[in-house]
Amino acid sequence: MRVAIAGAGAVGRSIAGELLENGHEILLIDKTPSAISVERVPRAEWLLADACEITSLDEAALQRCHVVIAATGDDKVNLVVSLLAKTEYGVPRVVSRVNNPKNEWLFNESWGVDVAVSTPRLMSALVEEAVSVGDLVRLLRFSQGDANLVELTLPPESTLAGIRVGDVRWPEDTSLVTIIRGSRVLTPSPEEALEPGDELLFVAAQAQEERLEELLSARHGPEHRPSAGREDGPRNT
């Protein structure tokens, strides 16, 4: 996969190193000569250019990229790069760094951003995740579809403990994508039973977050509990 990264500072170089280790083709773009440190990421391609200029992006052959990452320290630059990548070059996936949380509302599909990553928000979310059991924590916002990556640790007293994933009536527009159980990362099959202490990661519509938190807490009412049988009839045993 070909990935272009606008911004060759510490953040951009770190991302480039990780992606190169995973076998991807990386192009680093920066307009500051001192930022062009080929020896730090020797396996990447480097381009000394202004990523906000169409001529620079033409030179970078951005239309061949599968992903563009706007990783500069300037939110205005990241927004312009994202918009150009999406509208002028049709890049399928645009990820943008949000430096100032006050600007986060701008980083959406109107500016070509598929995923906005706010470091302050992510750090605070990870702190909350470490100390919160039974409370929903928003980890990442996806601009398209108004969906978020959220995490909730199943409390010991939850009535869903011991219930199989396929027997839970999850809220509309939510998808359980991963169960973290101790050191294990589990794909949530319908037959997998939930256990107290499970860290559950969902992609969920923002409008459903409150209902999802209520469902997984110990306080939800009987209308949310799994039914004795599946809606399509009793299970054969």
TrEMBL record:
Transmembrane segments: none annotated. PROSITE patterns: RCK_C, RCK_N. Residues 137-218 form the RCK C-terminal domain. Residues 1-117 form the RCK N-terminal domain. GO terms for molecular function: monoatomic cation transmembrane transporter activity. Residues 213-237 are annotated as: Disordered. InterPro entries: NAD(P)-bd_dom_sf (IPR036291), RCK_C (IPR006037), RCK_C_sf (IPR036721), RCK_N (IPR003148), Trk_Ktr_HKT_K-transport (IPR050721). Keywords: Ion transport, Transport. GO terms for biological process: potassium ion transport. This is Potassium transporter TrkA.
